[in-house]
Predict the structure.
Amino acid sequence: LRMSRGLGDVYKRQLQKGETVMKKLLFAAAVLTVFSGAYSAQALIPGVPVLETEVGYGYNGAKDGIHSAHIEISPVSKVIVGAEYRHWNHGGNETDIYAKYKLGHVYLGLGNRNYYDRDAKVYGLLEGRTNVIGPLDAYGGLKLSSEEREYKVGLRLGLVPTSFDLDVNYTYYDRDKTSSEDGFGVGLNYHF
């Protein structure tokens, strides 16, 4: 009885820690929304967005479920820097910090993933995105490190005339020294 209570306390502390980090990410996104909106309103070059930003929440059915939040900022043309926080239910928390460069419809980049069950690793990424029709885009991506390969494909539907889009995707996590996980996901993103 005492062991199960201790284990429950560990899960409770991990969940509380994850909630605290999620609240901090949402607060940071709100602050960036206010300041980047004011800054981009004073853009010197018409038609070129300054500090274009995306924030989003997603849920994926892999393993026992994964909740995620991300923010991506384009500080200069063709460059995106971002961060993603993932909470694997009954697993742990992971964080990605990354940068990518746009070449046409393709992004090439590097990132660092802080795993919940192993040491942090640097990864390379390759992503592509193209318009299918109207507000519907298709995308695919690969993240590759010495510990895993992550494949993701999906569709994004711009909810016209808002700044939101709906994301439906499939992700496959092929990690070393553990069983592979995959699942379908859904997300909501906001652009400003």
Summary: The CA atoms of residues 5 and 11 lie 10 Å apart.
